[in-house]
Amino acid sequence: MARSALTGTRIRQRRTLAGLGQAELARQVGVSPSYLNLIEHNRRRAAPELLEKLAQALGVEAEALSEGADARLLEAMRDAAVMAGDEVVPGPELDRIEELAGRFPGWAGVLAAQHRRLSALEHVIERLTDRMTHDPHLSASLHEVLSVAASLRSTAAILAETDDIDPQWRARFHQNLHADSLRLTEGAQALVGYLEASQQEETGIAAPQEELESWLAARGFHIAELEGPNPAAPETLIEGAAQLASRSARQLAVAHLRRYRRDAEGLPLRRLLAAVAEHGADPLHLAPVAGLGGDLPRLLRRLACLPPRAAASAPVGLVVCDGSGTLTFRKPIAGFGLPRFGAACPLWPLFEALSRPLQPIRRMVEMSGRLPQRFEAYAVSTVLQPPGFETPPVIEATMLIRPAPEDGDGAEVSAGQITAVGTSCRICPRPDCPARREPSIVAGEPAGQRV
Predict the structure, then answer these.
(1) CA–CA separation, 341 vs 327, rounded Å?
(2) What is the CATH number of the domain that holds 389?
(3) What is the pLDDT of residue 261?
(4) Which of 114-118, 229-233, 411-415 ranks highest by mean pLDDT?
(5) Cα–Cα distance list, 159 to 92, 145, 170, 184 (Å)
(6) How far does CA 205 lie from the centroid of its chain?
(7) Is residue 278 a part of any domain in this protein?
(8) Residues with Cβ < 8 Å from 225, sequence gap 6 or more?
(9) What whole-number distance in Å separates Cα of residue 6 and Cα of residue 97?
(10) Mean pLDDT for the chain?
(11) Which of 80, 181, 345, 436 has the highest CB neighbour number within 10 Å of its CB?
């Protein structure tokens, strides 16, 4: 159903909610009640000027009358329909979503909110599973708690089962019970606090690298003090940073900021923003521009740290790995899962680039999940230290991730040109992946289709 076809229905609903009679509203906007009646029954179109008057009289935005439910609400409802899959009998009427949102905006909002809540909980479960499987800190904490509990049980058993204990030894056992109880309390509190950190965003702190990423995320990954002719010293920028709690994190931060400054000198922000304004943020179009594509990894890194206003219009993610495939930097993007611990999906173009140094790679990828999302990935690897007869090469790969263009915004892509990827094998639901290393703990992907 066309959006405009429900404009009259929305006007009638808003008028009823406002407690206005048809004649009263018609008088306020300067039309006859009969003409307003035709508009409300979708038999006449309201001119833009009249629509503005109606919106002002009803106390709403004109878009609320002409477009109805906003795009985010409709998209959430479509996602909820796809997630339901075959569990709904009969299936949801996707062609009537706009009508449902227009006639019952309250219930549509509840449905969208429930879907967002369910998606958020699934995301938390995935992160907790990933953490419990691979996190060495969690494993050590659990081992400490279990060890103390076993010690308490052993001491308590001795006291309970032995009647003729020497008073001096009994006092020692009591002291041990007291000390172990304090250890158990402190260990349990630390463990709970550590697990609660996973309820936060992906920047939850668990290691020096994550401390750095948390600090950068709080700044939007853009360091304005390092742009321009008079940059600040990296050491002064990290002073007092609460996220950079450990010495290792501060060392990583200084190294990152020094590279950031070199990137800013090699590719000034003003030149990059001018090129983005003219050619868009697609690296495929920016690389041929004079002065931009000479150092592709630098271009990708600079696109990932644009100022907030520019970044909001062209969101991107960035992943960097070393020659072993270990992720050394992560800037997340919504919909593209990045593992906190353990190995990532071996099918990422990032790892393909490791085997093809200096050769740029562009791939359309589809991230697994209840609602698969498509992205464009641009990857390239470089040799940081050239190999010698007695020294191995040091290789680094960089991958920029950006949302796939909407239909009609880019070249058509056939299904065979899309690479199916995941976050990591442990939580990837794709059942027949040729690169799978271990069984997945989650169910296979539903049969729902993209809407």
Answers:
(1) 9
(2) 3.30.450
(3) 95
(4) 229-233
(5) 65, 21, 7, 19
(6) 16
(7) no
(8) 231, 232, 237
(9) 12
(10) 80
(11) 345
